[in-house]
Amino acid sequence: MALLPILRYPDARLKKIASPVTQFDSALQRLARDMAETMYAAPGIGLAATQVDVHKRLIVIDTSEDKSNLQVFINPQIIERDGEQVCEEGCLSVPGIYDKVTRAEHVKVRAQNVNGEFFERDAGGLLAVCIQHEIDHLDGKVFVEYLSPLKQTRIKSKLAKQARITA
Ligand code: K1U
Ligand code: ZN
Predict the structure, then answer these.
(1) pTM
(2) What ligand is nearest to the CA atom of residue 6?
């Protein structure tokens, strides 16, 4: 297993649109395992392949308290959504920044598992938020893009300052 480096906003590679997964092979299983290990180590509750510079439609999520419920979604698609919730979001690609985003309260997702089998899952609350946040990554979108242009500029300069300090 390996820990993968996570791209930092505003890296242009976070804007790439991920391609559908077509090969359900051992390399895909290894990628899913490495992404899970990277997410748990960060620590985080989700990770999209885009964030580790792999532009395939694969996300991992575990919103449990005790890291006991790893969920892998390949080629995820939201097929139903309803309601509205406002949640404070963070992002491993935007360290130290948290802000409120409005998203659907419930979603139904259709996806494939690592063997290519299709499944559907209903999600609400934090899991629904996390699924929407991670699918946004696959579509080249980072949560700060929901914030005002002024906030986005402030976040970019804060992260640039952090990068200069740690360089
Ligand atoms: O996509 C990511 O960068 C992961 C992100 C997922 C997420 C969090 C909150 C709302 C929406 C999506 C994170 O995991 S940020 C870190 C975080 O939320 C967390 C870290 C440790 C314990 C609990 C939560
Ligand atoms: Zn994120």
Answers:
(1) 0.97
(2) 1
